[in-house]
Specification:
Blueprint lengths: L1 H4 L6 E2 L17 H10 L5 E8 L1 E2 L11 E2 L4 H19 L6 E9 L7 H14 L1 E12 L6 H10 L3 E7 L3 H7 L5 H13 L4 E8 L6 H12 L5 E6 L21 H17 L3 E3 L3 E3 L4 H8 L3 E3 L2 E3 L5 E5 L4 E4 L2 E5 L3 H9 L5 E6 L2 H16 L1 E3 H7 L11 H9 L4 E2 L3 E3 L8 H6 L13 E2 L2
Parallel strand pairs: 2-5, 2-14, 3-4, 5-6, 6-7, 7-8, 8-9
Antiparallel strand pairs: 1-21, 9-11, 10-11, 12-13, 15-16, 16-17, 18-20, 19-20
Length: about 450
């Protein structure tokens, strides 16, 4: 059956961290719409906050993030001044402070911020929002550049979860992606974080990198497992040199094909499961007693722009250049270019450049896709009933579901879709069946596996 399914491995599809996905956002939704949506949030609304720090000290050639290299501190200091201004602009438009259970600092490298500036930034968030004592405050970390002073500032500000970039411990792969990072260096950072009281640890790994092999993938997993993080993410490398010019430094001849990528991903998954981790959705793993492992077991896992999450907030407020937010009315995204982002904010305007207003049909399809991505199963009839929709409206999708069933990718009884364990890596393909926008031209996505 693997030979039948292999036809789907190289298909390029969205990652479905939202629906509709970001390439479908338009300029029809701007600062005025975002302001209206913010003012419409009722007092007591549960929200999560995302802050984007788009700077690194060096560029990793595989990177697909919105980031730039800052060799001096001044651009970072200037950016933080604008970021603080944006936080005030957003908070001023709210009828009452939002109740926050999750805060996530992403990048780039958020720990590029000076310790005192990080403390000031978190203090501002606590001043303008009601951050619960039990809130998860997470930060993405480059272990190659984390100092003791920054670690102490993270702990003092209430950070309780850290996500460490590892990608691969194979020195051959590291050289090919311009990211040299030893096991010892990573272990030292892990020990320092735990000693400071930051006990929630995630590791990010990647398969499909140049010169990567199944053996090196397994060896990387073994070295990570020895450090016992609570969670791991195992992402497939997305090679899009047309969008990320630095990826042109990677020789495409060194990249594995779809079947090799599948073998790498499954080998890493098998090694993690054997080490006691629970497989979560497409590409996450967690210890069984971790909150994400529990959410997966209970069927309440969610998915947002950071991947899988336990965050069930009604609103996600994004701050910083390129940051994406989600409100009941729809999605908004800030200006991507730092200069334009700063110009908008310093003029007193919200930084929104584009977005998407959700229709009734969008909400229905978004839930179908999210449940598939999280649970690997969905009851179409039940979701339609929840949204007061007629399942027959989705009938055009049924022939594609039946074709996937014939190929052994899913089981489909006319209402319930169920993915067998050995089809897990094709969940994006199954989710795409419900994507009403996928056929629009001019979109480019990463490989489905």
């Amino acid at each position: 059956m693997i030979n039948v399914r292999a036809r789907y491995f190289d298909e390029r599809l969205p990652r479905y961290t939202s629906y509709p996905t970001a390439p479908h956002f338009t300029g029809e939704i701007g600062a005025e719409s975002y302001g209206d949506w913010l003012r419409a949030l009722r007092p007591g609304t549960k929200a999560s906050l995302y802050l984007h720090i788009p700077f690194c000290r060096s560029m990793c050639w595989y990177c697909g993030c919105h980031t730039s290299v800052a060799l001096r501190d001044q651009p970072i200091v200037d950016y933080l001044a604008v970021l603080r201004r944006e936080i005030a602009l957003v908070a001023d438009r709210l009828a009452a402070p939002l109740q926050v259970q999750h805060v996530h600092f992403g990048g780039g490298t958020p720990t590029i911020i000076a310790p005192d500036d990080f403390l000031r930034l978190v203090a501002l968030l606590r001043e303008r929002f009601v951050i619960a004592p039990s809130a998860e405050i997470a930060v993405e970390i480059d272990p190659r550049r984390l100092t003791r002073a920054v670690t102490e500032a993270l702990a003092a500000s209430g950070v309780n979860r850290a996500s460490l970039g590892v990608q691969s411990f194979d020195p051959v792969v590291q050289e090919a992606i311009n990211r040299i990072q030893s096991v010892e260096q990573t272990a030292s950072v892990v020990a320092g974080l735990r000693a400071a009281g930051i006990s929630g640890l995630n590791f990010d790994l990647i398969y499909g990198l140049p010169k990567q092999t199944v053996r090196s993938c397994i060896e990387t997993v073994e070295r990570c497992v020895a450090l016992r993080p609570d969670r791991l993410s195992v992402f497939g490398y997305a090679h899009v040199p047309g969008f990320k010019k630095h990826q042109r430094r990677i020789d495409e001849a060194d990249l594995p094909d779809g079947l090799e990528r599948h073998e790498q991903a499954e080998a890493m998954a098998e090694a993690l499961v054997a080490a006691g981790y629970v497989r979560i959705g497409l590409d996450h793993f967690a210890l069984p007693d971790d909150s994400m492992g529990q959410a997966g077991a209970e069927g309440v896992l969610r998915r947002n722009f950071q991947g899988y999450t336990t965050d069930g907030a009604e609103a996600l407020i994004g701050f910083g250049a390129s940051a994406i937010g989600r409100l009941p009315g729809g999605y908004v995204q800030n200006e991507v270019v730092i200069g334009r982002y700063a110009e908008r904010v310093l003029s007193g305007a919200l930084a929104t450049a584009k977005g998407f207003r959700l229709s009734t049909d969008d909400r229905l399809r978004a839930e179908l896709i999210e449940r598939l991505m999280c649970d690997l199963t969905v009851d179409i009839g039940a979701v339609c009933a929840k949204h007061k929709a007629n399942p027959e409206d989705l009938a055009p999708s049924f022939p594609r579901l039946k074709a996937l069933a014939q190929d052994g990718v899913i089981h489909f009884d006319g209402s319930r879709v169920l993915m067998p364990e050995d089809s897990r890596l094709l969940v994006r393909k199954v989710a795409s069946v419900f994507d009403a926008y996928l056929a629009q031209p001019g979109r480019s996505y990463s490989r489905s596996v």
